[in-house]
Amino acid sequence: MGYKTKEWRNSMRVTLDYNNMMDKFLGDKGFSQKKLSSYHTAAVNAFNYVKENRGKDELYMGWTELPYNQKEIVADILATARTIRRKFKYFVVLGIGGSALGPIMAFNALCHLHYNDLPKSKRKGPKFYVEDNVDPVRMRDLLDVIEPEYTCFNVISKSGATSETMTQYLVILDLLTKAGVNVKDNVIFTTDEKKGNLKKISDELGGIKSYVLPDGVGGRFSELCPVGLLPAAVLGIDITGLLAGAAYMDYTCRFASPSKNPALMCAVLQVAAMNEGKNVGVMMPYSDNLKYLADWYCQLWAESLGKNETLDNKPCNVGQTPVKSLGVTDQHSQVQLYTEGPYDKVVTFLSLKKYGCEFLIPHGCENIPDVSFLGGHTMEELIQAENEATAYALTKAGRMNYTLWIPELNAFTLGQLLFLFELQTAYAGAMLNINTYNQPGVEEGKKATYALLGKSGYDAKKAELDSQPQKDAKYII
Ligand code: PA5
Question: What global pTM score does this model have?
Answer without folding.
Answer: 0.97
